[in-house]
Amino acid sequence: MYRRTFFKNAIAGSLLSWSHGIEASTHHDGPRFPKPPSLSFGEEKSGLTITDIRSVRFVPKRPIPAYEPAAGSWNTSDVEIANPLSIYPRFKPRRSLFYAEDLGAETVIVETNKAVTGMGFGGPGAALIVGHLRKLLLGEDPFQIERLWDIMWRGTLYYGRKGLVVHAISAVDNALWDIVGKALQKPVYQLLGKTTKQRVPAYCTGNNVEQAVEFGFKKIKLALPHGPADGTKGLQSNEQLVKRARQQIGHDGEIMIDCWMALTESYAEELAARLAPYRVYWMEECLLPDDYAGMGRLNAKVKSTRMATGEHEYTRYGFELLARHRAADIWQPDMSWCGGLSELRWIDMLARANKTQVIPHGGWRGGGAHFVFSNENTPWCEMFLPWPGGPKEIYDRFEEDNGITRGPEGIYMRPSDRPGFGLQLVPS
User: Fold this and answer.
1) How far is the C-alpha of 182 from the C-alpha of 196, rounded, in Å?
2) Burial class (CB in 10 A: 0-12, 13-18, 19+), 136
3) Would you call 267 helix, strand, or coil by DSSP?
4) Which pLDDT tens digit goes with each residue over 374-404?
5) Which of 1, 2, 272, 287 has its CA 20 to 30 A from that of 34?
């Protein structure tokens, strides 16, 4: 019996259970977009007003030593990873060949009349839009988070809706949450409501499997090196990567595969069949993010693993299309890209209505850990280890900054209890 079949039989019917996409994405009864719980501070007049919004690059308040990663180690930009441009030989060898050189700062600072400031993380290109958002929000009360999100959304519809505009909205929205937490002297996770969690199991993304296992991870997500352009030889190489990882992590560990928008339906089906013996927990972003119909077909056909996507999806309206096409078992919005924490709350409510769990992309960074920790619909947190080859201080700081502990599921994390997101950063 395949793992998914066992899984479905064991926990069918539970709102928070893992389910196959056909079950997980049915049209739910009730409103089109279920409303998140009301915010306890939403009606307060804080006495604060927004006086400035600007894009800023941040650096750690306590400097981190620079180092060269160990020779031959894996990283995200300088080794071959399957990607949407892998079909073109010029861009196939590594992502750095097509990445934009500099789209400006992805982070913002929001200032208020009482010297309470917020730091917010967004995505590529956010700096190009921040000036417009500043015009929209100057003089407003930062506690009116949901109203201000709606103003930013409606005010940019004529040229936005996705991409860098929503990256900028995300950055400003997240900074507003940071302000509210600081003003109320509460960590953001407490603003989101009560949680039963003490810590969250984490998985490590990256192909430095030996390093991750030695650190203590029992859940690993591998970046697929090869796509359709590499043919049968590439398929065999992908299989060998997963086989070696299974040997290293052991039978009880979990393995996920990140396909980063690089595959076709037929290739993804064949890859899933090849990897079935290694009990892959999910395959992620197999197809281009706008191919909702293709993702739906793939999710219906593949039974040996789960389908995950959403890293490059935007707002509740994009995730509604994933639900409508029954495109994935697991949604992976990125809090810095999808519209910020305010919009992530709406996405999560839609996911719950469709019996789908939310495991955010980049869940440990930019304040995302507060959502992960507070949300009962989020069982795991994604993390990246610092690259191999650094001094001990690098990894000690990683543990300290992320509240790392160890237990039966390997590595666990917990967000800071400092007010706001607790980010220990300063403008560069």
Assistant:
1) 23
2) middle
3) helix
4) 999 999 999 999 999 999 999 999 999 999 9
5) 287
* pLDDT reading at 369 higher than 70: yes
For residue 339, what are the domain limits?
A: 13-34+193-421
Q: In terms of C-beta density within 10 A (0-12 exposed, 13-18 middle, 19 or more buried), how is residue 65 classed?
A: exposed
CB 423 within 8 A of CB 393: no
What distance in Å separates the CA atoms of residue 189 and residue 197, rounded to the nearest whole number?
Answer: 11
Decide if 291 is inside a domain. yes
Pick the catalytic residue from 312, 325, 361, 370: 361
Please classify residue 85 by burial: count the beta carbons closer than 10 Å to its beta carbon, then call 0-12 exposed, 13-18 middle and 19+ buried. middle
- Sorted by sequence, the CB contacts under 8 Å of residue 11 that are 6+ apart come out as 17, 18, 19
Residue 58 bridge partners (DSSP): 427
Residue 361 annotated as catalytic: yes
CATH code for position 142: 3.30.390.10
Query: 262 with 377, same domain?
Result: yes
Same domain, 118 and 264: no
Domain membership flag for residue 96: no
Helices and strands in the chain: count of H runs, count of E runs = 14, 15
166 and 301 share a domain? no
- Encode 157-203 in three state secondary structure: CCCCCCHHHHHHHHHHHHHHHHHHHHHHCCEHHHHCCCCCCCCEEEE
329 to each of 6, 199, 300, 354, 396, how far by Cα in Å? 15, 24, 10, 10, 35
Is 209 among the domain residues? yes
Confidence check: pLDDT of 81 > 70? yes
Distance (Å, whole) CA 133 – CA 407: 44
CATH number for position 390: 3.20.20.120
User: 3-state class of 223 per DSSP?
Assistant: strand
Q: What total of structural domains would you count in the chain?
A: 2
pLDDT, tens digit (0-9, with 9 covering 90-100), for 191-241: 999 999 999 999 999 999 999 999 999 999 999 999 999 999 999 999 999
